[in-house]
Amino acid sequence: MSTSILEASPAPLLATLISPATLAEALGTTERTLSEWRIRGTGPAYLRVGRSVRYRPESVDTWLLAQEHLSTAEELCA
Q: Are 34 and 20 in contact (CB under 8 A)?
């Protein structure tokens, strides 16, 4: 019996990827904004699977934590 890589791992990467629509809804923004962030390189790291864009949950978490600020003055310097 042959087992594929997707079936062998306990949490296949493909099953954990987040679509732009899902991420936009979770962040309270639009897919257009996510697209603009990808163009400018200011949003979370992403994967391109063929023509589709997907996000790793770990990359989204890392990006979210990088958005943390202590004051509005700090935010302006970033």
A: yes
Q: How far apart are CA 44 and CA 72, in angstroms?
A: 21
For residue 31, give every residue at least 6 positions away whose Cβ sits within 8 Å of its Cβ, in sequence order, or none: 20, 21, 24
| Torsion, Cα of 70, 34, 23, 73 (10° steps) | 10
Amino acid at 1: M
pLDDT along the chain (78 residues), means of 10: 55 90 98 98 96 97 94 76
- pTM for the model stands at 0.78
Say if residues 62 and 53 touch (Cβ distance below 8 Å).
no
